[in-house]
Write a structure and sequence with these properties.
single chain; alpha/beta; eleven-stranded parallel beta sheet; 73 strands; 14% helix; 21% strand; receptor; cell membrane; LRR_dom_sf; leucine-rich repeat
């Protein structure tokens, strides 16, 4: 029984096995109609049998279920994968849509180049449809939306595809409304064109959705909260859309989230920290969102993060040490963020790292050790602030590293040779550092894999190691801008058969260009031999037809530029500047130049500028002798953004053609002979223009007040022209302006307060104009935060210096927070983010057509080669993206020109104006000032002791003012002071000792009679000269009285008062007093004559009184009734010697410039004068008989009738009238004195010409 049971079980098992085998056979056997449909499909498709891996195997003799790409169930085709077969042609009439049992269809990565077939709705059982990058274009048919069983739909296309799919009719909402079972949706590259709420509502209907991939769909934000219901999401890809909103906080609630990619979405605001804490996230890419900021949290242990890309965002703060908890981290990209402080040493525990990019941040300190990251292949710490040396064991054990880039830091010391022997290393970049010393010979040259070496812009010296020229695989060698010396022979370069880039510029090298065989030379594409003492054009260049860049600057090359140099079809960069070139060899008519950058500055070229460079973006023809430019040059060079014609021989009017450039960002026409007015269009069209320099010409007229409201100027100079009128108010539209120089013109205006609204202004120069009035700006409350050079000298500004204005110059105040700023030279960028400019950013800089053309020209080499060369152009400013200009300031009484303007340099020049009042205390708060010049003004009061706060001032000029008092001792405590001028003030006391005070020349203290002490005369017993003013003003005596001084004053006042009182009270004394004065004056000044007139009109000459001759009779009309003390006016102007005006008779009279001005306390009061009859002319007597003798006056003057004393200036001999100025001044002083003394008691006639 047991045996039977065992046999039964064995038999049953065998039957089941046989049955299963039969079922399998039935399942795998392709049904005839299915095979027929597939063969018909193959016959209708266009493909290349040589490249096909699937269709080429489909044959009638074999079972179709065994064909590659075919999946069957029960003999029916349920899966078809024809991806990457390079299929072409249409599918609308294909038998494909008769495969009714299809559940999975993959046509990805083909080239159908047709619209999407509209018969997909026939495939009712489809669950997975993949048409990605299949070459379809146009509107996605609505029939696909009828496939209600779909769980995966992939219609994505790549960004580089020529074929674009659209989802607009129907829109995304209508298209997706029936696809309720979708779990994976891929619409990358499809033009959805929907706003935030629209596409979010459409997608949120898929509650089973796990994958949402809609990169580059032309959708916008903000991301709607309806997406928060999709808790099953594991993949979110929304790259390259214009979301332009914040990242929603609810993303941190997606507990299944594995991949989050939001790159290039215009995101802003703070990134949610909670997303970093999700334990399920393995890929996080939020790169290229410049306005997105945040900080990295403390990472938890056991995180699965594999890729973290935060590049080109505004993340900041420290890199936390807990990053070492990300044990699975393979890719960490923090390029171009704002991270600071040191790189954590625990980074060495990230053993899975393959790609580490920390470039373009602000990391400081030493480079961390990464010895444990054995898998590391890519390391970039470019453009940080890392310092210290590199030890020989620093990168020990990194056997897989291929690329090391430590460029643009502050690393120093010797370069360890251990770097050159890393077994897999192919690219080594150490440029832009401070490495010094000689470069040792390379060990193990034969086994080296090095292809790229960039050591440019360091301090390396000595000869270039010969072993460098033995690296057979070397393709890129850049040693420019060091201190290498010695001689390089061409045969050394000829050994490097694979070399395409050679950079030796800006060293102390001599390159011997003599060669026996110019043809046996590597095919170089980039040749940088500037400052290599060539002396002539190297002969081997003729055969380098594939050249992309050629730099021969500063090589003492003379003569003619050969024609063959223009005929390199792929040459995009040519620099022949700083040579002695005189002409260019033609012809130029048939040239097909592709030059983008042409630099010919500082030669002796003349005639017409070259215009055959139709693709040029940078043209520098400055410092030559060019004199001709075509009037329609915008048609010859339409793409130019940098155009410098400075310091040439151009003249005439600035033509309107300069306004027609569409991309121009810099226009420099300075130091030519252009005249007439500035074209109005040039002032209007400046929304792109950033630098406009018209200085040093002969321009005249007004500046048009039509500056565009979208003005984007950074630099604007009209210095040294003949411009007049007012400064246009529309200049305030240039809200990014940093440098404004309107000096040395004829502007007549008030201080331009409207410029106060330009917070970016750094340099303001208005010197040598006709600007006037006060410089106070009462209605402005903002600050000039960046202003550090102000020059208002040689104008007509008046009034006091306003404290609020000085306080607004916060850059000059120099807060402590600025002490850590890295100072350099003032420059003006042609493009935003110049420091971060890379070859990949060119699309944002120049025309798209030029970028595509350039990429084709440079496609012969990898991207990294062009990136390195471009980085060198940017660093050395040969790309022209940065403009540096000079400024001239008066330092130490001499005009000093700074070829480069240091950002730390601060200067304030208010000299040669009419400022008055005390020096304000606010001026002493400008602690960052290097130069302060207040000379030739009318400042008064004391020098404030707070001036000692100017601890950085190097030049201080307070000369030619009305300053008084003692020199404050705090001035002697300024140790930086190298120039001090206090001459011609009213200072007194002892010159304080300390610092450099006693080293200044005595002339800088001249004109201050009360000063003593070195470098002037010694002070006697510590007291000043007796002629000096008191060392302490009276108002500072604090109640004490100097009786010695007071007694002198009282005695003088009492004596004078007694005399004056006696004359007023006693008439006899008064008459005797005037008789004595009359006789005295007559003897001292015999040319003067007096006429006494009684009430009857009888006159008596004082001179006749002495000789007893009667005076002539004259008839006068009765005098008008006047006050007995009134002063009569001048005689009528008909008198031959009566002047038209006199300084004391008319407020508007003009004073002789040679006369001393009347002191205000000596001028007689301007009382009205009585009109008189025209007096009889009396020629000046040469003998006593020249006129009748008048009768003698009464013997007792007091008994005669009341007399009116007339002071008459008789006719004077012409020889006396033409006498010296000194004699005239003396006579005038006498007349003034008589008028002042007599006007209180007598009527005075001043007859005749004023002296």
């Amino acid at each position: 029984m047991i045996i039977h049971q065992i046999f039964f079980n064995i038999f049953t098992s065998l039957c089941l096995i046989y049955l299963n085998i039969n079922i399998y056979v039935v399942t795998c056997q392709c049904l005839d109609n299915q095979q027929s449909l597939l063969l018909h499909l193959k016959d209708n498709l266009t493909f290349n049998p040589a490249t096909s891996k699937k269709l080429v195997q489909w044959k009638q003799s074999s079972d179709c279920c065994q064909w590659s790409g075919v999946t069957c169930s029960m003999g029916r085709v349920i899966g078809l994968d024809l991806s990457e077969e390079f299929l072409s042609g249409g599918l609308n009439n294909s038998s494909l849509f008769n495969l009714q049992y299809l559940q999975n269809l993959n046509l990805a990565h083909n080239d159908f180049n047709s619209s999407v077939p509209f018969k997909f709705d026939m495939l009712k059982n489809l669950k997975i449809l993949n048409l990605s990058n299949a070459g379809f274009y146009g509107q996605i048919p609505a029939q696909i939306s009828h496939l209600t069983n779909l769980t995966t739909l992939d219609l994505s296309t790549s960004l580089t595809s020529r074929n674009i799919l659209k989802l607009q009719k129907p829109n995304i909402g209508v298209f997706l409304q029936n696809l309720k079972n979708i779990t994976e949706l891929y619409l990358d590259g499809v033009r959805v064109s929907a706003k935030g709420k629209e596409w979010c509502d459409a997608v949120s209907a898929f509650q089973k959705l796990k994958v949402l991939s809609m990169s580059a769909c032309n959708i916008s934000g903000p991301i709607d909260s309806s997406l928060a219901t999709l808790q099953g999401l594991s993949v979110i890809r929304l790259n390259l859309n214009n979301i332009s909103s914040q990242v929603p906080e609810f993303f941190a609630n997606f507990s299944n989230l594995n991949i989050l990619e939001l790159s290039s979405c215009g995101l802003s605001g703070r990134f949610p920290k909670g997303i970093f804490q999700l334990q399920t996230v393995s890929v996080l890419d939020i790169s290229n969102n410049l306005d997105l900021h945040g900080v990295l949290p403390n990472f938890r242990q056991h995180a699965v993060l594999h890729t973290m890309n935060l590049s080109n965002t505004n993340f900041s703060g420290k890199l936390p040490g807990s990053i070492s908890n990300l044990k699975q981290l393979s890719i960490l990209d923090l390029y171009n963020c704002q991270f600071i402080e040191t790189v954590p040493t625990l980074m060495s525990e990230l053993t899975q790292l393959v790609h580490l990019d920390l470039s373009y941040n602000k990391f400081v300190g030493p480079i961390p050790s990464l010895k444990m990251a054995k898998n590391l292949k890519y390391l970039s710490l470019l453009h940080n602030e890392l310092n210290g040396t590199i030890s020989s064991t620093h990168f020990e054990g990194l056997e897989n590293v291929i690329i090391i880039n430590l460029g643009d830091n502050f690393l120093n010391g010797k370069i360890p040779m251990s770097l050159f022997v890393l077994p897999s290393l192919q690219e080594l970049t150490l440029s832009e550092n401070g490495f010094d010393g000689p470069l040792d010979e390379l060990p193990s040259v034969a086994s080296s894999q090095l292809q790229l070496i960039d050591l440019s812009n360091n301090k390396l010296q000595g000869p270039i190691p010969a072993s460098l020229f033995l690296l057979e695989g070397l393709r890129f060698l850049q040693l420019s801008a060091n201190k290498f010396n010695g001689t390089i022979r061409l045969d050394m370069i000829q050994r490097l058969k694979n070399l395409h880039t050679l950079g030796l510029s800006s060293n102390d090298l001599s390159v011997n260009i003599t060669s026996n065989n110019d043809h046996d030379f590597p095919r170089l594409e980039y040749i940088l031999l500037g400052s290599c003492k060539l002396g002539k054009f190297p002969g081997f260049l003729r055969n380098q037809s594939q050249l992309h860049a050629l730099d021969l600057t500063n090589n003492q090359i003379q003569g003619i530029i050969p024609n063959w140099i223009w005929r390199f079809d792929s040459l995009v960069y040519l620099n022949l500047s700083n040579n002695f070139l005189t002409n260019m060899e033609g012809p130029f008519e048939d040239l097909n130049s592709n030059l983008y950058i042409l630099d010919l500055h500082s030669n002796h070229l003349s005639g017409s500028i070259p215009t055959f460079t139709k693709y040029a973006v940078h043209l520098d023809y400055s410092s030559n002798k060019f004199s001709i430019a075509p009037l329609d040059m915008d048609k010859y060079i339409p793409f130019v953004y940098f155009l410098s014609l400075s310091n040439n021989s151009f003249q005439g009017k600035i033509h309107d053609a300069f306004c027609s450039f569409s991309y121009l960002r810099l226009l420099d026409l300075s130091y030519n002979s252009f005249n007439e007015s500035i074209p109005i269009c040039l002032m209007e069209k400046n929304s792109i223009l950033r630098v406009l320099n018209l200085a040093g010409n002969k321009l005249q007229g007004y500046i048009s007040d039509t500056i565009s409201s979208s003005c984007n100027l950074r630099f604007f100079s009209l210095n040294g022209n003949h411009l007049s009128g007012v400064i246009p108010n529309s200049l305030a539209n240039c809200q990014s302006l940093q440098f404004l120089n309107l000096g040395n013109n004829q502007f007549s205006d008030r201080f331009p307060c409207f410029l106060w609204n330009i917070s970016t202004l750094r340099v303001l120069i208005l010197r040598s104009n006709k600007l006037n009035d006060a410089i106070a700006c009462s209605h402005n409350t903002s600050n000039w935060e960046m202003l550090h050079i102000v020059d208002l000298a040689s104008n007509n500004f008046t009034g006091k210096l306003p404290g609020p204005l000085l306080r607004s110059w916060t850059k000059m105040i120099g807060y402590e927070t600025e002490s850590h700023e890295v100072y350099g030279d003032l420059f003006f960028d042609m493009f935003d983010n110049h420091d971060n400019m890379r070859y990949s950013n060119l699309l944002s800089v120049i025309n798209k057509f030029l970028v595509l053309k350039l990429q084709k020209l440079l496609a012969t080499q990898p991207y990294t080669v062009a990136d390195h060369i471009f980085a060198y152009y940017v660093t050395s400013n040969q790309f022209g993206g940065r403009y540096l200009d000079s400024v001239t300031v008066v330092v130490k009484d001499q005009a000093r020109t700074y070829i480069k303007i240091p950002t730390i340099f601060t200067s304030l020049d208010l000299s040669s104006n009419h400022f008055q009042g005390p020096i304000p205390e606010e001026l002493a708060s400008l602690r960052a000032l290097k130069v302060l010049n207040l000379s030739h003004n009318a400042f008064s009061g004391h020098i404030p002791s707070s001036i000692g706060n100017l601890t950085n001032v190097e030049s201080l000029d307070l000369s030619n003012n009305n300053l008084r008092g003692e020199i404050p001792p705090e001035l002697a405590s300024i140790h930086t002071l190298g120039y001090l001028d206090l001459s011609y003030n009213h200072l007194w006391g002892k010159i304080p000792t300390g610092a450099q005070m006693q080293t200044f020349e005595s002339r800088y203290f001249d004109g201050n009679e009360g000063l003593c002490g070195l470098p002037l005369k010694d002070c006697t017993n510590g007291e000043v000269d007796q002629h000096s003013p008191p060392t302490r003003p009276v108002k500072e005596m604090d109640g004490s009285i100097d009786w010695n001084f007071l007694s002198v004053e009282l005695g003088l006042i009492f004596g004078i008062g007694t005399v004056i009182l006696s004359l007023l009270l006693f008439e006899r004394w008064r008459l005797l007093y005037w008789e004595v004065v009359d006789n005295l004056l007559y003897r001292v000044v015999p040319q003067l004559d007096f006429v006494y007139e009684d009430q009857n009109g009888q006159r008596y000459h004082s001179s006749s009184r002495k000789s007893h001759h009667p005076p002539p009779r004259t008839t006068h009309p009765p005098p008008q009734a006047t006050h007995p003390l009134a002063i009569h006016p001048h005689p009528p102007a008909s008198h031959p010697h009566t002047p038209a005006s006199h300084p004391h008779t008319s407020p508007g009279a003009t004073r002789n410039p040679h006369e001393p001005p009347p002191h205000p306390r000596e001028s007689p009061p301007h009382l009205p004068r009585e009109p008189t009859a025209t007096p009889t002319s009396h020629p000046f007597p040469t003998t006593p008989s020249s006129h009748p003798t008048p009768p003698p006056p009464p013997s007792r003057l007091h008994s005669s009738p009341p007399l009116t004393l007339k002071l008459e200036k008789a006719n004077i001999d012409k020889s006396l009238l033409s006498g010296s100025d000194k004699r005239k001044a003396f006579r005038q002083a006498v007349v003034n004195t008589l008028e002042w003394q007599l006007f209180r008691s007598f009527k005075i006639y001043r007859c005749g010409e004023a002296l």
